[in-house]
């Protein structure tokens, strides 16, 4: 089996599980795991935004929670304060996050290495404390709950997110569209420019690439993906809170991306899924479950430094080489 065939098999297996999860999971475990898997898909987008910057451009951001929070608050404020409909509020939240990414990125991508990481944390902290203190708009410590308006309304007929199966497949559709968009970008000339800048920005500039513009484009795109995740999470929880804008949320997304495998398309889903499942299972057994989660992270980093996705890729390449060698040495 070729490496590409192995990737396709793994990808189709993940897609098949995702499409059948509302019926398969209740047969295997408790039905509440369907909601957990919905959460995993949403959070994986936040990890994917980290992966896009770190894995393909070489920029480590601890500020992706800022754009996640803007997506959340955009939806909540749009519904509560501006009386927007479902789609208007959803687009408003994503637009706010993308706009904030453009503003923050215009300053942040001028820096690299730890300076870039530090400034993204600073941006996150500024708006975290702003959200806490701006209680009339954001709800402060209490957050901002809201009721989701209907998605489609025809007379007495209303389609809403209160339908569990519809909510699940709405999340799957949006998340799937984001991963498809990332796949197209990563495999486009722009994606190759991302990798070129990551490998050697000086040489990239020498061959005529605008390094600043490429990094800014990646930063805005990553902010857009994080904003979609925040908007989806607001609709999923019917709530927006400043706590999700704190930099520790970005830190978790960085861990998820590294565990799953930076520089791989579906690594964020694998890493996010593993960490959230560990959290759910261990938290019911031991109050200090985070210690065990930390051990799992350390072991993964030591024995699979390229992450689980990277280890899978290496295994597939090894199998392909072995099969090629057999063919070459055969009669």
Gist?
With 331 residues, this protein is mainly alpha-helical.
What does this 3D model show about the protein?
The chain has one domain (3-329): ABC transporter involved in vitamin B12 uptake, BtuC, CATH 1.10.3470. Helices cover 76% and strands 3% of the residues. The chain is built from 14 helices and four strands. It has helices at residues 3-28, 32-56, 64-80, 86-108, 113-133, 135-138, 164-186, 189-199, 201-206, 211-237, 247-260, 267-283, 289-303, 307-329, and strands spanning 144-145, 152-154, 157-159, 239-240. The protein has a two-stranded antiparallel sheet. Strands 2-3 form a two-stranded antiparallel ribbon. Strand 2 (152-154) and strand 3 (157-159) form a beta hairpin. Helix 2 packs parallel to helix 7 and helix 11 (247-260) packs parallel to helix 14 (307-329).
Broad shape: globular
The overall pLDDT average reads 87
Major β-sheet annotation: 2 strands, antiparallel
Structural class: mainly alpha
Straight-line distance between termini: 20 Å
Look at the structure and give the CATH class. Mainly Alpha
Taking strands numbered 1, 2, ... along the chain, how are they ordered across the largest sheet? Answer: 1-4
Q: What is the annotated CATH architecture? A: Orthogonal Bundle
Q: How many individual domains?
A: 1
What percentage of amino acids are in beta strands? under 5%
User: What are the low-pLDDT stretches, counting only 5+ consecutive residues below 50?
Assistant: none
Order of helices and strands: HHHHHHEEEHHHHEHHHH
Radius of gyration: 21 Å
Total DSSP helices: 14
Overall number of strands: 4
Oligomer kind? single chain
Question: What is the helix content?
Answer: over 70%
Q: Which fold name corresponds to the CATH topology?
A: ABC transporter involved in vitamin B12 uptake, BtuC
